[in-house]
Design brief:
mainly beta; 207 residues; globular
């Protein structure tokens, strides 16, 4: 059952959005991009049915060159702030940018470089301690491993941990945080020729 809908119309090509998050009081935040040159953050109020965004900002400069090279993005809301995470297409690093609840840029940025990044929905979460937790994949000679990190409110990385899924490696693709410093990470563990035989594997990492 559809409870509410809202449309966004801008320049042609704004067909990509893979990040949406609820803020305080039910405000809705999302990112839209055209995959190559322009990335925007939008804010809708809680009664957004049929409404236009109450705030709209172009953040292409802050997230360049990630947006210019087809990078991927994720959102989180914590401590009355919006956090935008982007992963470079070549997998060399990811960056987190902090905005206030009205989408004003704070200029605060954090980075994480596990050297091989696969980013998708659900890979950045606010913990019960109101800190940010992320999961992605890091390189190993045999393939890849789960890589997780915790960031403080100033976006300085507090700690990180990794898990070698064995065989030809694995990719961390999902995250949940029920207790401070404890990250449940799920993903794939592969073996066999070319990593063709894969299974799901979930682990608890301490951060």
């Amino acid at each position: 059952i559809t409870l509410a809908t809202a449309a966004y119309t801008s320049l042609p090509g704004f067909t990509n959005t893979n990040a949406v998050v609820l803020g305080a009081g039910g405000d809705v935040y999302m990112q839209v991009n055209n995959a190559t040159t322009t990335l925007k953050l939008l804010k809708y109020n809680a009664a957004f049915d049929g409404a236009s965004p109450v705030a709209e900002v172009n953040v292409s400069t802050q997230m360049f060159p990630i947006i210019g090279n087809g990078g991927q993005f994720e959102l989180a809301f914590a401590s009355n702030s919006v956090y935008l995470m982007g992963a470079a297409e070549d997998g060399s690093y990811l960056t987190i940018r902090k905005f206030d609840a009205n989408l004003n840029d704070t200029g605060i940025t954090g980075t994480f470089a596990p050297t091989r990044i696969q980013l998708g929905p659900g890979m950045m979460r606010r913990g019960p301690d109101h800190l940010l937790y992320i999961v992605t994949s890091g390189s190993t000679p045999a393939g890849s491993r789960y890589a997780a990190a915790k960031f403080g409110r100033d976006r300085v990385m507090g700690s990180s941990a990794s898990f070698d899924a064995g065989g030809q490696g694995g990719s961390g693709i999902g995250l949940d945080v029920q207790e401070p410093g404890q990250a449940w990470v799920t993903g794939t563990s592969c073996s066999g020729g070319g990593g063709t035989q894969c299974s799901a594997r979930t682990v608890l990492l301490s951060l």
